[in-house]
Specification:
single chain; eight-stranded parallel β-barrel; about 625 residues; alpha/beta; five-stranded antiparallel sheet; TIM Barrel; Immunoglobulin-like; about 15% strand
């Protein structure tokens, strides 16, 4: 057997199992001295750290107690030098270590001095403490909310909290869950999922930043809506300016003929009363459309949709830029579309959209998205401009809601407008979205239960700007006063060329342009907002020549101002009910016979315009069209 053996020739088991004993060398004198020095140095370093902490606390206490407001300039080296004897600092821990302590301490001190200033806020001042902005991040497609302010509010902890509220919510529900939080700072950013087209979609929410104060969430900035829904749009084609500003409220009965081609129409408008869209179809050739949005499925009348397909498809095929006017007509089957304060007490054909209830917001979001999706390409026709409601300052006649103060009225309109705007722009990035005003500008009539257009414009602009500025435009209806008066150039006590004018017609349209040129009205990109003369007509009852001259006056004036993007004449054919009121606005009478205005309209944007419009100079009393400009 191989292996080592003991004296008796047997293997020595202890050789394998005995514990080896190794004599450890003790540190020599120099090593022991070095270890003592190291321990001593560490103790001194701990002492320095303690002194720094004590010094910093003492300094903060001194700051707190300094009632005169003057703060002495104390630096970290000052504290070090007063806390560490020179010999200890240099001899025991070395100058390099002290330098590192000083550098690190100065960095901490610099960060401390850059900390946000803390403020005690409460009540109404809390709502204005932080400026809140909300966008969809173009890269991540998440909601990104930024809160910025001069310092931070005092609170129970170190966080800002982010909440997503419904458009109709007025405060944070204390039982709700926050969707994000981050450390308070002068500028703090929080993000959350958008959940686009899901049951938990946040596209139409308003976002609120809060702190926790005495165990309750306290809002510290105004609510902010998403301001760039266009970054998620499916249709991103660039808006193409129409070949001219000449437009028309088209007669659907003449759509299939060649009259629009003969007239050279470049822009057109058509109404969409939204309740007509809803519900099942009754015609077997046009089946019901089942449309799912945000996790819910809606029934849409395929037969009614086919009408709009025909209108918008035909106009698009003819190269005509189209404007759709979204109107809120009452339906007993869909009362949720109508604002709660608009469901009774009126004979007006249209009412305030319902941004005050969940069901109203859901239906508006669905309708706006469906229409934008269907009419954003050439398959069913393309709509470039969308007008939300009609003449909103004429509360009693066209946008009914029980009378209230103007701030409340505009808030209710702005809620619905923003839902439609967001829905449309989230599908078609180049779409234009407008509010609508009539010619009642600044009447200031006591006890008037309608509102002046100027006041609506002021309040709407403040409302939108304070909660997230967006690119809305103005669809103006500058009819003559009275409507039966054709001669727009005729002097009137109601028409002045200043912002205090009682009424607005084409004689003083410069008032609106100048008003929107003011800095507070500019778009987020600093541009003057788009103006669309979306409805304007002149009656032929006093004579066809006067009607034609009035149209020429209006068109040449509109053509002179870049801020006005279109002029939609009311209308292609006389309407019998309007003619009975003395308002024969059509290019043709009810029987289809052309009036003098027909050829003026046809040629006014061509090289032959003078041949058809020079007659109007004598009627108006001018020798050059530049004389009508202010």
């Amino acid at each position: 057997m191989n292996g080592e053996t003991g004296n008796n020739g047997k293997p020595d088991k202890n050789k394998f199992f005995k514990k080896k004993h190794v004599k450890k060398a003790l540190p020599d004198k120099n090593e022991r001295a070095g270890m003592k020095k190291l321990v001593k140095g560490l103790l001194v370093l701990l002492g320095v750290m303690l002194l720094l902490t004590v010094g910093a606390v003492a300094f903060l206490l001194a700051m707190h107690k300094n009632s005169g407001g003057e703060i002495a300039e104390i630096t970290i080296p000052d504290i070090i030098e007063s806390a560490i004897p020179d010999t200890a600092a240099q001899g025991d821990i070395g100058s390099g270590v002290v330098d590192h302590i000083v550098t690190a301490g100065n960095a901490v001190w610099s960060s401390y001095r850059k900390r946000p200033e803390t403020h005690e806020v409460s009540g109404s001042e809390a709502e204005d403490f932080a400026s809140v902005e909300c966008i969809i991040d173009p890269d991540t497609k998440r909601v990104s909310v930024t809160a910025s302010g001069d310092g931070v509010p005092k609170s129970d902890d170190k966080y800002y909290y982010l909440f997503a509220l419904n458009t109709y919510d007025s405060a944070i529900d204390q039982g709700s869950e926050y969707i994000a939080r981050d450390y308070k700072d002068n500028v703090t950013n929080m993000t959350a999922a958008l959940n686009y087209n899901l049951s938990g979609s946040r596209l139409f929410k308003k976002f609120v930043v809060a702190v926790k104060k005495d165990g309750q969430y306290m809002q510290v900035g105004r609510p902010a809506y998403i301001t760039n829904p266009e970054v998620i749009a499916k249709y991103t084609s660039v808006y193409v300016q129409p070949a001219s500003k000449k437009g028309l409220l088209v007669d659907p009965n003449r759509l299939r003929g060649n009259e629009l081609d003969d007239l050279g129409v470049k822009q057109a408008a058509y109404n969409i009363p939204v309740a007509r869209l809803l519900g099942p179809s009754t015609h077997p050739a046009y089946p019901t459309i089942h449309y799912t949005y945000n996790g819910k499925t809606y029934t849409i009348n395929g037969q009614v949709v086919s009408e709009y397909d025909l209108v918008f498809g035909t106009l698009t095929a003819k190269g005509i830029s189209t404007t759709a006017i979204i109107l809120n007509n009452y339906s007993s089957n869909y009362p949720q579309l109508m604002h709660p304060d608009s469901r009774s007490g009126s004979t007006a054909p249209y009412g305030m959209f319902n941004g005050a209830e969940e069901s109203g917001v859901e239906y508006m979001a669905m309708i706006g998205t469906f229409l934008a999706e269907r009419y954003s390409d050439n398959k069913h026709g393309k709509v470039s401009n969308w007008i939300i409601a009609n003449e909103i300052n004429a509360r009693k006649e066209w946008n009914y809601m029980a009378y209230t103060d103007i701030e409340t009225y505009v808030e209710e309109f702005a809620r619905g407008f923003r839902v439609f705007y967001t829905a449309i722009k989230s599908v078609s990035s180049s779409a234009n979205v407008y509010i609508s005003l009539d010619q009642q500008w600044d009447r200031d009539i006591r006890n008037n239960t309608n509102y002046d257009g100027r006041d609506i414009l002021d309040v709407f602009n403040r409302n939108i700007s304070s909660k997230g500025n967006i690119d809305w435009g103005v669809a103006q209806h500058p009819y003559n006063v009275p409507l039966t008066e054709t001669k727009t150039w005729k002097a009137s006590k109601y028409i002045e060329n200043n912002a205090g004018s009682s009424m607005m017609s084409m004689a003083n349209i410069e008032v609106l342009i100048d008003y929107l040129r003011q800095p507070q009205f500019l778009t987020p990109d600093g541009e003057v907002r788009s103006i669309l003369i979306s409805e304007l007509g002149y009656t032929s009852h006093a004579g066809e020549a006067y009607q034609a001259a009035a149209f020429a006056y209006a068109y040449y004036k509109i053509a002179a101002y870049d801020e006005i993007d279109g002029f939609l004449l009311n209308r292609e054919t006389d309407a019998g009910e309007e003619v009975a009121q003395g308002l024969a606005f059509g290019l043709s009478n009810t029987g289809g016979t052309h009036k003098q205005i027909y050829n003026v309209f046809k040629y006014i944007d061509t090289a032959e315009h003078a041949q058809y419009t020079d007659f109007a100079k004598d009627i108006i009393g001018i020798s050059d069209w530049n004389q009508i400009l202010k």
